[in-house]
From TrEMBL:
Residues 43-237 form the Double-GTPase domain. SUPFAM superfamilies: P-loop containing nucleoside triphosphate hydrolases (SSF52540). Keywords: Membrane, Transmembrane, Transmembrane helix. The chain crosses the membrane at residues 6-33. InterPro entries: DO-GTPase2, P-loop_NTPase. This is 50S ribosome-binding GTPase.
């Protein structure tokens, strides 16, 4: 009798284990299938003034990913004819030393792609949109009122983004004591602070927990602060276009060696950095350059860190 009960108990335990394993397997398939059918939306907004290097920054991200210099093993596929065409045309422009075409008011261009992370049934699939800020023109920043940033149609799209990048152009900062640099700092600080306050006001009903949304300050054109190739520093600083110097031969830069200059820039913009950092649990600062690469590997300077700060994973 006891032996029969023991055998029955063993059967029940085995059956329970089989059901549990099957349940986990089915749940995994459901997650995988659901992920495959319904990719998770992920919107990234680049917020900044004309000719600050936003389009170049986006193009660099794609170029470095395609070349497998960053995010190795992550499957990224551009979606839509317009996205595929623009990405490849802009990469070709950089590689052949031509200016990138400015983004116009009419474009309101969103780069679309799908991103697959992981290789098992628990992998996640994302529908990523990267917004390129419009309004590029030939006017100088001095002609722009700080409120110009918030009145654009693109900003209405950016209000609902998942990641917010604020772009600061280092081309204005060759001399931190100059009137031009001080005016630029003042304009950027007031404009970006107001931009974030408008984003918060838009989500005042609490529908979005913005503290969990990444905020990244990106300093572009880092190479302009260093005489990398014995070029005239003043002439480089005045070149506010996205025209490459020698894109195909990026100069190695040691992150440790330039840390002092980076700290100086951070201190110069301490007000806006302190404000935005206090508004999120996921804050980062990235220094980037299209014409310099990390000394420890071949990736363009700052691109690996930028990608991991703004893309899902």
């Amino acid at each position: 009798m006891n032996s029969n009960l023991s055998f029955l108990s063993l059967i029940i335990v085995l059956a329970t284990m089989i059901v549990a394993i099957f349940s986990v397997f089915v749940t995994g398939l459901a997650v995988w299938g659901g992920t495959k059918k319904l990719p998770i939306s992920h919107m990234v907004s680049f917020i900044g003034y004309p000719r600050s290097g936003k389009t170049t920054l986006i193009t660099l991200l794609f170029s470095e990913i395609f070349a497998q210099r960053i995010l190795r093993g992550v499957n990224i596929t551009p979606r839509g004819e317009e996205t595929i065409k623009r990405i490849n045309e802009d990469i070709a422009r950089l590689e052949t030393g031509r200016d990138l075409a400015p983004t116009t008011d009419q474009d309101l261009f969103n780069y679309r792609m799908e991103m697959l992370t992981g290789r098992t049934f628990l992998s996640r699939r994302y529908k990523v949109e990267i917004g390129d800020f419009p309004g590029e023109d030939s006017q100088n920043l001095s002609d722009k009122d700080p409120d110009w940033l918030h009145s654009t149609r693109y900003f209405q799209w950016a209000l609902n983004a998942d990641v917010f990048l604020f772009i600061i152009d280092l081309a204005y900062l060759s001399d931190l004591e100059s009137d031009e640099a001080k005016k630029y700092r003042s304009t950027i600080t007031s404009s970006f602070r107001a931009a974030w306050q408008k984003i918060k006001d838009h989500h005042y009903d609490g529908a979005r927990k913005l503290r969990n949304n990444p905020i990244v300050i990106v300093f572009t054109k880092l190479d302009l602060l260093f005489d990398l190739q014995n070029l005239d520093t003043q002439n480089k600083a005045k070149n506010l276009t996205n025209s490459p110097k020698d894109y195909n031969k990026p100069v190695p830069m040691d992150a440790k060696e330039i840390m002092g200059k980076e700290d100086q820039i951070k201190e110069y913009f301490q007000d806006i950095i302190g404000y935005l950092k206090s508004e999120t649990n996921r804050f980062d600062i990235v220094f980037s350059s299209a014409f310099a690469k990390e000394k420890t590997h071949d990736a363009r300077f700052g691109m690996e860190r930028l990608a991991r700060s703004v893309l899902p994973g």
